[in-house]
């Protein structure tokens, strides 16, 4: 992929005016909470769609984000990465994927944050059967989701953990069902989610995170940029087609307060039935080719409060 050098990383390491405004809004919201004697429980950096490449410009950009995070007065407690960590593991040889993971490790070595991740569609090693390397690669123990799970430290494809009074549930979106027309969690995972929430105290606020949005306006607008409105169907390639099943589960658990996602490379915030659905902007923007439609490269900061409220700001770095 050719990466334009002109203006690429111009001002890297220096906060833009929009970034300064975003940080000031975080501070203002925190001050309002302090007036009400409501404490912040956690600050989380939300990074998504990094699409790391073995290019010095990309390494510098990603390392620059980590530098910004570490230089914050109130540093994040940890990072949530909602997938598409590598540029692409689909249709790639083992040698190429190994090169990309080395680029990932190089960037990761520039920070000391704990990182919690979920899988993106480009984090799956997949080759079509007609590919010359398919027979050998498909027998490799790292084939499929395993390589990314190992590198990202996922205990399972979907899992949960708790920190400072909040529960976090990482979900696996990457189960494309062609008959249903898009991405699903699958019944086994939905059963697990139902049980996980049933075993969680109703007083414990919950954050879900997945790669593909559960509820978002961004898939519709992304599609509308490319397809005549009257010909558009449900955007199952960019939003969960089992959304109604998930909604039914979450409606029974009002302590689920936040759902993070990425995938679309757009930014939005949908508040629906008590859940704040935040779709984060892509670190890579237009796959390291500048702005995608109206959205520049970005990452976000999520503040979580002890009363279950949240505040989310996007940093166009």
From TrEMBL:
MF (Gene Ontology): hydrolase activity
Transmembrane segments: none
Domain of life: Bacteria
SUPFAM superfamilies: Metallo-dependent phosphatases
All copies of domain Calcineurin-like phosphoesterase, residue ranges: 42-266
A Pfam cross-reference name: Metallophos
Classification via PANTHER family: METALLOPHOSPHOESTERASE, CALCINEURIN SUPERFAMILY, SERINE_THREONINE-PROTEIN PHOSPHATASE CPPED1
Name of the molecule in the record: Tat pathway signal sequence domain protein
């Amino acid at each position: 992929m050719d990466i334009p050098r002109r203006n690429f990383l111009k001002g890297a390491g220096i906060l833009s005016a929009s970034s300064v405004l975003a940080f000031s809004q975080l501070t203002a919201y925190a001050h309002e909470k302090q007036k009400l004697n409501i404490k912040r429980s956690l600050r989380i950096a939300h990074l998504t769609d990094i699409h790391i490449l073995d290019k010095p410009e990309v390494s510098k950009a990603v390392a620059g984000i980590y530098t910004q995070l570490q230089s914050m007065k109130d540093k994040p407690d940890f990072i949530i990465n909602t997938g598409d960590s590598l540029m692409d593991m689909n249709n790639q040889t083992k040698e190429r994927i190994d090169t990309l993971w080395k680029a990932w490790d190089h960037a990761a070595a520039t920070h000391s944050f704990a990182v919690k991740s979920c899988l993106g569609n480009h984090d799956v090693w997949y080759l079509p059967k007609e590919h010359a390397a398919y027979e050998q690669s498909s027998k490799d123990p790292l084939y499929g989701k395993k390589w990314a799970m190992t590198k990202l430290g996922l205990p399972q494809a979907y899992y949960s953990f708790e920190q400072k009074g909040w529960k976090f549930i990482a979900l696996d979106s990457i189960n494309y069902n062609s008959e249903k027309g898009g991405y699903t969690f699958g019944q086994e995972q939905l059963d697990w989610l139902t049980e996980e929430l049933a075993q969680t105290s109703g007083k414990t606020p919950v954050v879900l995170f997945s790669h593909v949005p559960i509820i978002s306006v961004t898939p519709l607008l992304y599609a509308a940029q490319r397809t005549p409105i009257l010909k558009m169907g449900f955007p199952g390639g960019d939003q969960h087609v089992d959304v109604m099943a998930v909604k039914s589960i979450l409606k029974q658990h009002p302590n689920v307060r936040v759902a993070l996602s990425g995938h679309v490379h757009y930014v939005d915030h949908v508040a629906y039935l008590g859940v704040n659905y935040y779709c984060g902007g892509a670190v890579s923007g237009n796959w390291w080719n500048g702005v995608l439609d109206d959205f520049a490269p970005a990452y976000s900061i999520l503040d979580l409060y002890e009363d279950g409220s949240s505040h989310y700001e996007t940093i166009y770095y």
